[in-house]
Amino acid sequence: MNDDSESEAGGYPIRALGQGIAQERVVAAQQAAMAAVEALAARGSLREIEALIDGAAPDDAARLRALLGMPEQSIPMRQTSDELAPGWQRGGYPYKYKMLRKDYEREKFLLQAELLKFQTWIKETG
């Protein structure tokens, strides 16, 4: 299998394609979250809005807070999401900080590309 920076799809490097697709997915996810918050706000569902923001990726949560005119979170946003949380061995969420949406979408695209390459290789080699 080729390195993903060398592999091409339709004449474009996979990594470059992945960044564009990941950005589109980020925008779509953020628009969906904003629509959900607006619908909840119209119903006056403050607890559900708070739950949605608490469960969102840090960058999405900041954008939702700004949309609603809420104060910024006092805890600064982390630039890394790979630090393990205490107790992850006992089945808890494994990471201390939530992954940024843009990082999640980029990693998801690269993993999907690798899976497709692997599936193709299996079909070709039996």
Task: Describe the protein in words.
By secondary structure, the chain is mainly alpha-helical. The model is unreliable at 1-6 (pLDDT under 50). It has helices at residues 14-43, 46-55, 58-68, 101-125, and strands spanning 8-9, 12-13. It has one domain (8-125). Strands 1-2 form a two-stranded antiparallel ribbon. 60% of the residues lie in helices and 3% in strands. The protein contains four helices and two strands. It is globular.
Summary keywords:
single chain; 126 residues; mainly alpha; two-stranded antiparallel sheet; 4 helices; globular
Write a compact overview of the structure shown:
With 126 residues, the protein is mostly helical. The protein has helices spanning 14-43, 46-55, 58-68, 101-125, and strands at 8-9, 12-13.
Shape: globular
Strand elements, count: 2
- Largest sheet, spatial ordering of strands: 1-2
> What's the helical proportion of residues?
55-70%
Listing every helix as H and every strand as E from the N terminus to the C terminus, the arrangement reads: EEHHHH
Question: How many helical stretches?
Answer: 4
